[in-house]
Specification:
Number of domains: 3
Strand content: 5-15%
CATH topology of the largest domain: DNA Cyclobutane Dipyrimidine Photolyase, subunit A, domain 3
Strand order of the largest sheet: 1-4-3-2-5-6
Helix content: 40-55%
Oligomer: single chain
CATH superfamily of the largest domain: DNA Cyclobutane Dipyrimidine Photolyase, subunit A, domain 3
Shape: globular
Distance between the termini: 62 Å
């Protein structure tokens, strides 16, 4: 539809800067502005005949989207909507709200500049209700949308179309390198789903990191080379991340978020995320040039005061569809073929994009809607309240959560082996963990967040996503970071007031689930270690774990 990737740099002042938007977002004026909407160019919308109403969601900002195939600007309209209820249903952090709103408005303005007819709505109604009203008013011949990234959103779009009596077409999302149908075919061929086999198939199918039909470097997996921790002196000089000063449109969004979502977690004071395709490409170039060569070696390491390290920071651009995974993979592979980055670093990174990202999407759509309700370990504890503040004496959690709330970001080991691990061992209801992850991270869209949280992190799916629960003591965190230095808790102790809560809860986790995992091929050895504990020590561990759960803020416990 539109050539190139040169998104508009300076965006007009008519979009989202007038009193209409401010009133629509203001909680005090909801009744007066329940259906506020305008054309992107600020003109009054007419109810002229519409052939196709093309729905573009906030995580579908892809100018090559299948939604635009065959578009005729003369009779088709593009429909976008900021539904305030979406940010309330998931108590989204300020950073997450700002990323979505700014990126959506930039995208709408870019479509307009290329000749698209865009209806851009701001409403306090739900997304489905607002669409239903629009369909009843416009009566288009057909609604077109690309596969949404969330089951609930898809259901609301379908229900709106059916309620209004308007036909709809749902097109496959070709942003991804494995369609939902292709993943289902892969699943049918296997007794048990595992990433490794899927990833190898994807490598072969797309001819990624392949040399004469064999994996580059002579092996499929370089994980063994990508698990180092920093020396005692620390990570050394770390390249500064590429961050962006807010332009006028983004600054308007930031101001609105501060006012309308003041009660939401986090802050927008540090906002600097890419919100256009142009910026996303710059982040990709910066990562390839400055971070990729060292990414693999240190990808699991953590350090106080270093939230960014050598990670790509591309997930938000990928998950909003500002950047195509094929482009990212091609750039990373080219860095290896040119000698700029080692095979271990490139393979480790491509595994995340071509492997994990595509795999979790397949799991999500194959398992939904029942996946959200899985709770294999019967975890039922509430989420400790300090997950929303970072106010805990456990230094690792304080660091990870404080960074998360300030930046809307934490890297994958902080998510899996700090915040996620504690929730797993503590026994938090997996739905509560899911809601927190979906809320606080700028890159969180349910198709990618839910399997990673409920399956990979919390083992609530009983092994669909991962072959074992990622359970570990505080010694893992001590080995992979300097978080334990200066912390009052000792990771080598199981009981007593100085015992690291991770270590206490790890042994309690094994005791509580001893029967389930005693014959598990990847957990049996860990469970066998319980035999070394006396009955008295088991009792002390369980008593201490009970105290931790009764005092979720820890305090002087």
């Amino acid at each position: 539809m539109w050539p190139g990737h040169d998104l508009e740099k300076g965006l007009g002042g008519k979009l989202g800067t007038g009193s209409l938007l401010l009133r629509a977002l203001s909680p005090g004026r909801r009744d007066a502005e329940r259906a506020a909407a305008m054309s992107v160019d600020g003109t009054v919308r007419s109810a002229a005949a519409v052939r196709h109403l093309i729905v573009v969601l906030g995580d579908q900002l892809d100018r090559e989207s299948a939604a635009f195939d065959g578009i005729d600007p003369g009779c088709d309209r593009i429909w976008m909507c900021e539904a305030k209820g979406e940010a309330e249903d998931t108590w989204s952090s300020k950073q997450r709200i700002a990323v979505f709103l700014s990126a959506m408005r930039h995208f709408a303005a870019a479509l307009l500049k290329r000749g698209g007819r865009v209806d851009y709505h701001q409403t306090v109604e739900s997304l489905g209700d607002r669409l239903r009203g629009e369909l009843q008013r416009r009566s288009p011949e057909q609604v077109i949308f690309v596969e949404p990234g969330e089951w609930r959103v898809r259901e609301s779009l379908v229900a709106a179309c059916q309620s209004a009596g308007v036909a709809f077409v749902e097109r496959s999302d070709r942003h991804f390198l494995c369609s939902r149908e292709e993943f289902a075919q892969h699943a049918r061929r296997r007794k048990q789903l595992r990433l490794e086999y899927f990833y190898r198939e994807m490598r072969v199918r797309h001819r990624v990191l392949m040399v004469d039909g064999e994996p580059a470097g002579g092996q499929w997996n370089f994980d063994h080379d990508n698990r180092e921790s920093f020396p005692k002196s620390g990570p050394g000089p770390v390249p500064a991340p590429l961050r962006f000063e807010p332009d006028d449109l983004t600054q308007t969004v930031i101001d609105e978020v501060r006012e309308a979502f003041a009660h939401h977690p986090g802050t927008v004071d540090t906002f600097g995320w890419p919100v256009t395709a142009e910026q996303a490409y710059q982040v990709l170039d910066h990562f390839i040039a400055h971070r990729l060569p060292s990414f693999g070696r240190w990808q699991d390491a953590m350090w106080v005061g270093e939230p960014w390290l050598w990670h790509s920071h591309l997930a938000v651009a990928l998950n909003l569809k500002l950047l195509a995974p094929a482009t990212v993979i091609e750039a990373a592979e080219a860095a290896w073929r040119s000698g700029h980055a080692p095979i271990a670093a490139v393979e480790g990174f491509i595994r995340q994009v071509l492997g994990w990202r595509e795999y979790v999407r397949g799991i999500y759509w194959m398992q939904m809607p029942g996946y959200l309700d899985l709770n294999a370990l019967q975890a039922s504890q509430p989420l400790p309240p300090w997950y929303w503040t970072g106010e805990t004496p456990m230094r690792c959690l304080r660091e990870a959560i404080t960074d998360t709330l300030a930046l809307g970001y934490a890297h994958h080991i902080q998510r899996l082996m700090v915040t996620g691990l504690y929730a797993l061992l503590y026994g938090v209801d997996p739905k509560a963990v899911h809601r927190w992850y979906l809320s606080v991270y700028v890159d969180a869209v349910e198709w990618v967040e839910l399997p990673n949280t409920l399956g990979m992190s919390q083992f609530a799916d009983g092994g669909v996503m991962a072959s074992k629960p990622y359970a570990a003591t505080g010694k893992y965190i001590e080995r992979m970071s300097n978080y334990c230095e200066g912390c009052r808790f000792r990771p080598d102790r199981r009981t007593g007031p100085e015992a690291c809560p991770f270590t206490t809860l790890y042994w309690d986790f094994l005791i509580r689930h001893e029967q389930r995992f005693s014959t598990h091929p990847r957990m049996a050895l860990q469970v066998k270690n319980l035999a070394r504990l006396s009955d008295a020590e088991r009792g002390s561990i369980q008593a201490r774990a009970g105290e931790l759960r009764q005092t979720p803020g820890l305090g002087d416990a």
